[in-house]
Design goal:
Elements (H helix, E strand, L loop, with lengths): L1 E5 L11 H9 L4 E4 L8 H10 L4 E4 L2 E2 L5 H14 L5 E6 L3 H6 L8 H16 L6 E2 L4 E2 L24 E4 L3 H10 L2 E3 L8 H12 L12 E10 L3 H7 L1 H10 L7 H8 L3 H12 L3 H6 L3 H7 E4 L1 H12 L5 E5 L3 H11 L2
Parallel strand pairs: 1-2, 1-12, 2-3, 3-5, 4-5, 5-8, 8-9, 9-10, 10-11, 10-12
Antiparallel strand pairs: 6-7
Helix pairs in contact: 2-3, 3-5, 5-6, 6-7, 9-11, 10-11, 14-15
Length: 342
């Protein structure tokens, strides 16, 4: 299992933490991942990072497919990859919730599963340098919809990129299955060792439909974990609860919240309902307090170094291809490299 560094969404300070990234590169971390919400984008920082690094791979986690057309996404990725010397770019794609898709990006929510399928198919055609023609259930190229004057024609990429791996950020069974069918890898925000068996079984259902020789053993599965070195485990778990309550309680609509659904899937349905109820009522501190310690402990590595090393084994042995360490101080980056080397 490889290690990588996840920078997460950036606030006002969009400058990548280069000392941390360079440390990760020196220690053998495989990749650095950038994110986007409704502020800084995921692509631009990777060009900055590419200029100051030599070999660490560069990935988006995730690039929102409604923020760019598939062609623009392909252009951004292949341009960064060329600037980085080639073979370093990894494109992680996905959708945000309907509040951001329609409220910020100005796109209809539509049928996200089909839109992801169409995006992957178009990216592959572009990077194979085919004349791109695609008639999907959500995306059509050349465009022939309202406002078209009918002069669009299939075009071929004028650059000559190598193949760029495509990973999909997915959590629902429908989208995980589809990811196995069309992508090179899966990135799941709430993936834990306890959910890996079911996730791999669902991926296999999709992989079984392929004819390109892909197998579950070749398929890339990336998980993520927060790490905190401390002697006070209970306080460390409590410190993460406000963030979890924000996502499970308020990041999305009452009827559509993928983070809440992930909590339900892991057996914390009653807590998830209570957290959402409290958060949407404005009782955010109570919502945070309602997050069970066990839930936090499943997706974080906290405690003294010995406890972290012991609990890391479950991640290492779970079947993950890569474990992304969320934004952390240098001592955490160094500790995880040491633990992983044993």
């Amino acid at each position: 299992m490889k290690l990588s560094l996840s920078l997460g969404p950036r606030g006002r300070d969009v400058t990548p933490p280069m000392e941390l990234i360079l440390l990760a590169e020196r220690l053998g971390y495989d990749a650095v991942w950038t994110a986007e919400t409704y502020g800084a984008d995921a692509m631009t920082p990777l060009a900055y990072i590419a200029a100051l690094t030599k070999k660490i791979k560069l990935g988006t986690s995730i690039a929102q497919i409604d923020a760019r057309t598939p062609a623009n996404l392909a252009m951004c990725a292949q341009t960064i990859d060329a600037l980085a010397g080639g073979g370093r770019m990894r494109v992680g794609i996905g959708t945000s919730g309907p509040q951001i898709v329609e409220g910020w990006l100005g796109r209809p929510w539509g049928r996200t599963n089909y839109r992801l399928r169409d995006t992957v198919a178009i990216l592959r055609k572009i990077w194979r340098r085919e004349y791109v023609e695609h008639h999907g259930k959500e995306i059509e190229l050349p465009y022939r919809g309202p406002g078209s004057i009918g002069l669009g024609k299939p075009l071929k990429n004028i650059m000559h990129p190598g193949p760029i791996p495509i990973y999909i950020g997915a959590d629902t069974p429908l989208n995980v299955r589809m990811t196995g069918e069309v992508a090179d890898g899966l990135m799941a925000m709430h993936l834990t060792p306890s959910t890996m068996k079911q996730t791999m079984a669902t991926l296999q259902e999709g992989i079984a439909k392929r004819t390109d020789g892909m197998t579950l053993e070749k398929f890339y599965i990336r998980g993520g974990v927060g790490v905190r070195i401390t002697d006070d485990v209970k306080a460390a778990l409590a410190a993460e609860k406000a963030h979890i309550a924000l996502y499970a309680g308020g990041m999305g609509a009452r009827s559509i919240n993928f983070h809440k659904e992930a909590m339900v899937k892991r057996g914390f349905g009653e807590a998830a309902d209570r957290i959402q109820e409290l958060f949407l009522a404005g009782r955010k501190e109570e919502a945070a307090a309602a997050v069970p310690d066990e839930y936090v402990d499943e997706e974080y590595l906290v405690g003294p170094q010995a406890r972290i090393a012991e609990r890391y084994k479950a991640w290492r042995d779970s079947g993950l291809s890569e474990l992304a360490i969320r934004m952390a101080p240098p001592e955490v980056i160094e500790l995880m490299a040491k633990i992983a080397s044993k």
